[in-house]
């Protein structure tokens, strides 16, 4: 009877459970609530979760790689929409999960072992409900985690927005003369105080751990050791480097450059070791948080940068040993500038520390601008004071009649540029553009570091190769014997390697300047300024400010570098290669033309020009070449042929179409020929290829010929005239003794005898003037000897009276 009761109850529950899903599914269709979200199937819920996760990953990637082109407003709207979609999904899944739980509550727990088992339909129904419940729980868990991630992304986005506002170079605040600007220093806001207190909560435990009684002695010992290495260790290491340079390096300019490099490196190396010991002292028993760890690593790099500034100042000024100084600075000027590198290093350390603290603590915009304004002000005053003091000392030397250092054009341009940057930064501070002033001062410091490092390494590279390949030193002699080369080849190799090293260092320095040192890059500066002026509209026309800046800078640096290498080739390398002037001029011109083409291609590439988009330009040019540009292209190709085949070269004496002179320059389109009267004839290159050209000096002959033909009466003694002409030629200073001048009997005619006298001169260009001098002397001696020249015979017909035309006819 009990079994029948349990069986009847099971059948009733099974029927109810089978009807319940249909009733629950039909109920919303008959009477849906106004705010009840539509039910989702498992496939629809999983598809929506996947879409939300993909969108969240996209926003997270955009936030992690934010740059000047990222629109934070769009990211904010996308996050809000994503949060709304997540809430809708949770609202749709939560009722379904409650319904499943209600169904499971009706079914109750499964029967205990040993009792009457439930039917297969009930067990299957419970398993399906549990599986759906697990799926809904997983979906709700993913939605909850997605909501938490969205909240974290919202916080990160807020931090990015504050950082973007702080780094906005066009952002204007109060002037440094306004007391409101300094208010955050005396009355910080509650948020800034809370953030700094939270940062202090991370720092204080580290300090307390380091000064615990069981760790205090080791911490103090490490700090004392770091101080000793930074002071005494630096001096001892520098003295050891000086001893090595004086005793192991040759006595030439390599000692000076090596000593300067040793001074800078010892300062950086000892500072790095001291910083490492301090880091170990405070973190050996404490694991810093991620933000504090990042702050410590950034501060270590900043300390090394400051040490490099101080080391470069000591190395280049070299006030203790003026004879070791690399740059041509007067001693009073070097002494006047001595304290400023250290002061600049200390101020830069302070500036960077404030920047890092503001970044880690995420202080407010006014407090951040206050720190940047203070840093920019002290840096501007330091560099400005150094410039004023140096100028005052130079003026004093000039007034006293003493000679100051020689100033090159490039040095003057750098001095003027630094002065202008200081003035611009000071005006920006007074106008309230603190972030812009900070950019200018930081870039100015970075420019000084790169420039001084480039100068030091360039001098060291040149001196190293000159000493290594010098025949006067052991290394040069070993290389000479090993490879069997002469001294001229060693000099050529030295010049070539030093030039290549200088070029590589210059390119690296240019890249370092373009990538930016401490602050914003020039491209980001222009981007910030154009953002205020409507940069988004420019981007809508595919005009990218950063591309324009990079292209302009690359074009300027490329042209400057090309001209520098061209001067180096023309003045140093090619003359040592023992090449003739014409070949040197051709190689330099060819190098310049190829270099300009490469620079233009690089500039177009940086502008984002794609070569497949230039097809229409090539088509248009082909049409233009076929009509109007035909002659230009022909002359251009002819110029390339002249530079490669070299039928004529610079310095040759040529004659073409009645024009005779020296080739002074072969351009891309035409060739300049200088005549004897110093005038210049411009001949298209195509004429030098297509016409007959007489090249007097093509055979590399250094001799010219002075030949004269004279006609004498038949009764003249030819031997006497021959001796007289030979004496005149031999007495002339420009006529060479070898080959010996000669006289040839050229012609015997009824009107006289013709003698040809020939002599050689050292240069074809003086043959004309030599002929003139010889003719003067010949006429003088012929008159003295009473030897006449033959007069040309002419037939003169006069009108005689009484004679007719018939009378003039011959008789039959």
Automatic annotation (TrEMBL):
<dbReference type="InterPro" id="IPR049278">
    <property type="entry name" value="MS_channel_C"/>
</dbReference>
<dbReference type="Pfam" id="PF21082">
    <property type="entry name" value="MS_channel_3rd"/>
</dbReference>
<dbReference type="InterPro" id="IPR011014">
    <property type="entry name" value="MscS_channel_TM-2"/>
</dbReference>
<feature type="transmembrane region" description="Helical">
    <location>
        <begin position="614"/>
        <end position="633"/>
    </location>
</feature>
<keyword id="KW-1133">Transmembrane helix</keyword>
<feature type="domain" description="Mechanosensitive ion channel MscS">
    <location>
        <begin position="632"/>
        <end position="697"/>
    </location>
</feature>
<feature type="signal peptide">
    <location>
        <begin position="1"/>
        <end position="25"/>
    </location>
</feature>
<dbReference type="InterPro" id="IPR023408">
    <property type="entry name" value="MscS_beta-dom_sf"/>
</dbReference>
<feature type="transmembrane region" description="Helical">
    <location>
        <begin position="369"/>
        <end position="388"/>
    </location>
</feature>
<comment type="similarity">
    <text>Belongs to the MscS (TC 1.A.23) family.</text>
</comment>
<feature type="transmembrane region" description="Helical">
    <location>
        <begin position="496"/>
        <end position="518"/>
    </location>
</feature>
<protein>
    <recommendedName>
        <fullName>Mechanosensitive ion channel family protein</fullName>
    </recommendedName>
</protein>
<feature type="transmembrane region" description="Helical">
    <location>
        <begin position="409"/>
        <end position="433"/>
    </location>
</feature>
<keyword id="KW-0732">Signal</keyword>
<feature type="transmembrane region" description="Helical">
    <location>
        <begin position="585"/>
        <end position="608"/>
    </location>
</feature>
<feature type="domain" description="DUF3772">
    <location>
        <begin position="140"/>
        <end position="202"/>
    </location>
</feature>
<dbReference type="GO" id="GO:0008381">
    <property type="term" value="F:mechanosensitive monoatomic ion channel activity"/>
</dbReference>
<feature type="transmembrane region" description="Helical">
    <location>
        <begin position="302"/>
        <end position="319"/>
    </location>
</feature>
<dbReference type="InterPro" id="IPR022249">
    <property type="entry name" value="DUF3772"/>
</dbReference>
<feature type="domain" description="Mechanosensitive ion channel MscS C-terminal">
    <location>
        <begin position="707"/>
        <end position="788"/>
    </location>
</feature>
<feature type="transmembrane region" description="Helical">
    <location>
        <begin position="439"/>
        <end position="457"/>
    </location>
</feature>
<feature type="coiled-coil region">
    <location>
        <begin position="126"/>
        <end position="163"/>
    </location>
</feature>
<feature type="transmembrane region" description="Helical">
    <location>
        <begin position="258"/>
        <end position="282"/>
    </location>
</feature>
<dbReference type="GO" id="GO:0005886">
    <property type="term" value="C:plasma membrane"/>
</dbReference>
<dbReference type="Pfam" id="PF12607">
    <property type="entry name" value="DUF3772"/>
</dbReference>
<keyword id="KW-1003">Cell membrane</keyword>
<keyword id="KW-0472">Membrane</keyword>
<dbReference type="Pfam" id="PF00924">
    <property type="entry name" value="MS_channel_2nd"/>
</dbReference>
<dbReference type="InterPro" id="IPR052702">
    <property type="entry name" value="MscS-like_channel"/>
</dbReference>
<dbReference type="InterPro" id="IPR006685">
    <property type="entry name" value="MscS_channel_2nd"/>
</dbReference>
<feature type="transmembrane region" description="Helical">
    <location>
        <begin position="340"/>
        <end position="357"/>
    </location>
</feature>
<keyword id="KW-0812">Transmembrane</keyword>
<dbReference type="InterPro" id="IPR011066">
    <property type="entry name" value="MscS_channel_C_sf"/>
</dbReference>
<dbReference type="InterPro" id="IPR010920">
    <property type="entry name" value="LSM_dom_sf"/>
</dbReference>
<keyword id="KW-0175">Coiled coil</keyword>
<feature type="transmembrane region" description="Helical">
    <location>
        <begin position="217"/>
        <end position="237"/>
    </location>
</feature>
């Amino acid at each position: 009877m009990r079994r029948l009761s349990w069986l009847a109850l099971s059948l009733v529950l099974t029927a109810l459970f089978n009807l319940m899903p249909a009733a629950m599914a039909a109920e919303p269709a008959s009477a849906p609530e106004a705010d009840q979200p539509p039910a989702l199937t498992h496939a629809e819920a999983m598809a929506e979760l996947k879409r939300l996760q993909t969108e969240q990953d996209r926003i997270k990637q955009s936030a992690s790689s934010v740059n000047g082109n990222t629109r934070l407003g769009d990211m904010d709207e996308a996050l809000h929409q994503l949060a709304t979609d997540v809430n809708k999904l949770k609202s749709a899944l939560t009722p379904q999960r409650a319904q499943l739980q209600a169904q499971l509550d009706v079914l109750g727990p499964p029967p205990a072992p040993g009792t009457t088992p439930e039917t297969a339909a009930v067990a299957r129904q419970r398993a399906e409900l549990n599986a759906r419940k697990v799926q809904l729980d997983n979906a709700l868990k993913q939605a909850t985690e997605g909501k938490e991630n969205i909240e974290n992304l919202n916080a990160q986005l807020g931090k990015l927005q504050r950082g973007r506002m702080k780094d906005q170079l066009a952002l204007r605040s109060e002037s440094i003369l306004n007391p409101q600007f300094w208010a955050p220093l005396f009355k910080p806001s509650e948020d800034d105080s809370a953030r700094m207190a939270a940062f202090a909560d991370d720092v204080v435990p580290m300090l307390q751990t380091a000064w615990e009684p069981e760790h205090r002695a080791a911490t103090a010992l490490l700090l004392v050791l770091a101080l000793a290495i930074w002071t005494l260790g630096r001096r001892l290491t520098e003295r050891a480097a000086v001893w090595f340079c004086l005793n192991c390096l040759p006595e030439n300019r390599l000692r000076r450059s090596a000593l300067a490099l040793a001074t800078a490196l010892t300062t950086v190396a000892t500072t790095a070791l001291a910083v490492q010991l301090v880091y170990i002292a405070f973190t050996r028993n404490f694991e810093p948080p991620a933000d504090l760890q990042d702050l410590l690593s950034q501060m270590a790099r900043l300390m090394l940068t400051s040490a490099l500034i101080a080391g470069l100042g000591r190395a280049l000024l070299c006030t203790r040993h003026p004879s070791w100084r690399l740059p041509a600075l007067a001693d009073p000027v070097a002494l006047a500038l001595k304290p400023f590198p250290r002061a600049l290093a200390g101020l830069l350390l302070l500036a960077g520390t404030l920047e890092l603290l503001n970044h880690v603590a995420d202080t407010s915009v006014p407090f951040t601008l206050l720190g940047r304004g203070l840093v920019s002000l002290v840096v501007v005053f330091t560099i400005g004071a150094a410039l004023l003091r140096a100028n005052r000392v130079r003026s004093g030397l000039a007034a006293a009649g003493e000679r100051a250092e020689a100033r090159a054009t490039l040095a003057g341009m750098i001095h003027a540029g630094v002065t202008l940057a200081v003035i611009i930064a000071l005006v920006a501070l007074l106008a309230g553009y603190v972030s812009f002033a900070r950019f200018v001062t930081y870039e100015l410091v970075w420019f000084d570091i790169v420039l001084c490092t480039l100068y030091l390494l360039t001098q060291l590279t040149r001196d190293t190769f000159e000493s290594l390949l010098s025949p006067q030193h052991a290394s040069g002699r070993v290389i000479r014997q090993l490879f069997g080369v002469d001294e001229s080849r060693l000099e050529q190799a030295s010049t070539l390697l030093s030039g290549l090293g200088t070029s590589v260092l210059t390119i690296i320095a240019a890249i370092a300047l373009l990538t930016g040192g401490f602050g914003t890059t020039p491209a980001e500066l222009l981007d910030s300024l154009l953002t205020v002026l409507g940069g988004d509209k420019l981007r809508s026309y595919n005009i990218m400010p950063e591309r324009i800046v990079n292209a302009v800078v690359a074009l300027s640096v490329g042209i400057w570098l090309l001209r520098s290498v061209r001067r180096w080739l023309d003045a140093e390398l090619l003359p040592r290669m023992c090449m003739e002037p014409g070949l040197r001029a051709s190689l330099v011109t060819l190098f310049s033309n190829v270099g300009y083409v490469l620079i233009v291609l690089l500039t177009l590439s940086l502008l984002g020009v794609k070569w497949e988009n230039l097809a229409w330009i090539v088509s248009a040019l082909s049409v233009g070449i076929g009509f109007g540009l035909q002659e230009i292209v022909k002359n251009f190709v002819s110029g390339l042929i002249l530079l490669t085949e070299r039928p004529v070269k610079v310095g040759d004496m040529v004659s073409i179409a009645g024009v005779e002179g020296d080739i002074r320059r072969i351009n891309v389109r035409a060739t300049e020929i200088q005549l004897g009267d110093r005038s210049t004839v411009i001949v298209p290159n195509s004429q030098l290829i297509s016409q007959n050209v007489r090249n007097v000096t093509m055979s590399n002959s250094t001799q010219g010929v002075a030949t004269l033909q004279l006609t004498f009466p038949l009764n003249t003694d030819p031997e006497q005239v021959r001796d007289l002409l030979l004496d005149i030629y031999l007495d002339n200073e420009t006529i060479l003794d070898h080959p010996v001048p000669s006289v040839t009997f050229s012609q015997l005619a009824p009107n006289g005898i013709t003698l040809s006298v020939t002599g050689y001169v050292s240069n074809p260009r003086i043959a004309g003037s030599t002929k003139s001098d010889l003719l003067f002397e010949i006429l003088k001696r012929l008159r003295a000897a009473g030897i006449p020249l033959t007069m040309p015979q002419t037939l003169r017909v006069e009108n005689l009276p009484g004679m007719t035309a018939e009378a003039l006819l011959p008789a039959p």
